[in-house]
Amino acid sequence: MANERIGVVGTGRMGANIARRLKDVGYAVTAVYDINPESARSVGEEVGAMACRSLSGVTENADIIITVVSDDAAMYSIFAQTGDSLLVPEQPQAVGGKYFINCATITPAVHREIERILNARAAHSIEACMASSIPQARNGTLYLMCGGKREDFEHVRPLLEKMSSSLRYIGPAGKAAEVKALVNMVMNINTAALAEGLGLGEALGIDLDVLREVFSQTGAASRVLETDGADMQNRDHDCYFSAAHAAKDSGIAVSLARETGVELPLAQATLDQYERMKRAGLGELDKSGVSELTFKSRAAAHKVAH
Amino acid sequence: MANERIGVVGTGRMGANIARRLKDVGYAVTAVYDINPESARSVGEEVGAMACRSLSGVTENADIIITVVSDDAAMYSIFAQTGDSLLVPEQPQAVGGKYFINCATITPAVHREIERILNARAAHSIEACMASSIPQARNGTLYLMCGGKREDFEHVRPLLEKMSSSLRYIGPAGKAAEVKALVNMVMNINTAALAEGLGLGEALGIDLDVLREVFSQTGAASRVLETDGADMQNRDHDCYFSAAHAAKDSGIAVSLARETGVELPLAQATLDQYERMKRAGLGELDKSGVSELTFKSRAAAHKVAH
């Protein structure tokens, strides 16, 4: 399998690090593409891959194509049925036998539709949803939740194992994206909850170092306390996972809830908070930036409307 | 200090276990009281203490009195300025020099008022808020957050160290109760969040064993996932910490937020959920019972109105 040629579409920080990791462990990364040609050129040079000017160029020059794009619209555009596309519309056999692994967080239904489109052309589709961030992509320690046909997953498993320290097959197309949406929904609520706890603590004049330490040893403990607690206190909102992304993912979960008739008041309240951040121009802060709404002195500064 | 006589007011499961623990480590537990005389009789017999028929009897027969009552109203009633009370109103010197340690979760302002009342009678007041449950009371491994005058805390520290594996002095009267309210507020939000994640997961047909495992390894991980996740899935809502208590504590936090002008939409949404449980007759379930509202099949059964 290490003989197969790897393509990467989307050479942002996650995609670039996946390419670097796969080159490190001996894969031939042969083709990269990005809507920003300079990004593709630079990453291509680094990993020894052709920086393709067209999406069809990636399909032609790779056997397994990893896609890391930003949202549903970007996913549809790279698999468009006309114009320049990974599908190479003018040449319907071009994708036959190839494997497409999507690592972006998109709506579950889009995974199902992309699988249908690819299967109709004798190509394979795997979703590999990432529940970790940039350093894990570089080190091959991503937490990957996979969906698609079991045999397709098994075919690319050796590759995925090089990207991941924790690989899970969840079920058919869309199921991994559903689990990912649930993970991020709960993570986002816990994040907004922590921001409320620290914000009220500040208003009461409580030492936030002590408060975080107490939280860590009690029923208030959470993973986001470890990752975001100090950042909230110190207003260090450099972006690992943006508020805009949090809004997108909570939005996916709230939509799934609506479709299935489940009431989720906390998920809705959290989505509202991240939407407020976007309206206040804070969407590109890290998700920890939700504390800008719950710390009294900060909220005033941002004049955030409901 | 082990020569000092210990009284315990409130011999429910927490108070009884504190009495048992202190007896085990060599303290003389001399007086116990409960509004349910049979409970006091039984616990008194077990630890070799007098089961007092009156609150004044506890004051007369103990030097350090630990109070573990259910709420603000109960706290005011045991410290009433007329009738039968720990203050022994007809004999103003009765409480002089004695130490009162309150372990119940009550409103911060009530701690401050009780301290004022006791100090006016030359008695000492310490708050020792517990962030753990029944087994920890029995084993002397409570997480205790303490408030009051520093010298009063230091005086009873040897006793508190026998009750606690993690003892923290937070600040003046009321501050520990504020921290406790913040802990429970965040814990309750994380609990309601988890119930939403598992409820939506069920509606989507996702294996909840897998989902909990994924949560545990990602940004959705939390202490309540460990303590309440399986219980939510299995509808095992035997009470450790009741929904009614959760509503009370989230209510304290929401009141503090209102007083300090902080907006906490998630704390409010969580309070609403626990109030819904009470209205649906589910208030005596464990807090994990909030999943009865978020699992579609269960919510229908409970016909819970907003």
Report on this structure.
The structure is a homodimer of 306-residue chains. By secondary structure, the first copy, chain A, is α/β, with parallel strands linked by helices. Chain A has two domains: 5-173, Rossmann fold (3-Layer(aba) Sandwich); 178-302, N-(1-d-carboxylethyl)-l-norvaline Dehydrogenase, domain 2, CATH 1.10.1040. Chain A has helices at residues 13-24, 37-47, 55-61, 72-78, 108-119, 134-139, 150-163, 175-203, 208-216, 223-234, 243-260, 265-279, 291-294, 296-302, and strands at 5-9, 28-33, 50-51, 64-67, 99-102, 124-130, 142-148, 164-171. An eight-stranded mixed β-sheet of chain A has the order 3-2-1-4-5-6-7-8, sandwiched between helices. In chain A, strand 4, helix 4 and strand 5 (99-102) form a beta-alpha-beta unit. In chain A, helix 8 packs across helix 11, helix 8 packs across helix 12 and helix 11 packs antiparallel against helix 12 (265-279). The longest helix of chain A is centred in the middle third of the chain and has 29 residues, at 175-203. The model of chain A has no long low-confidence stretch (mean pLDDT 95).
Report the radius of gyration of chain A as a whole number of Å: 21 Å
Biggest interface: A-B, 63 and 63 residues
User: What is the CA–CA distance across the termini of chain A?
Assistant: 53 Å
Given the helix and strand composition of chain A, which structural class is it?
A: alpha/beta
Following the backbone from N to C, one meets helices and strands of chain A in this order, namely EHEHEHEHEHEHEHEHHHHHHH
- Number-wise, the strands of chain A total 8
Identify the overall geometry of chain A: elongated
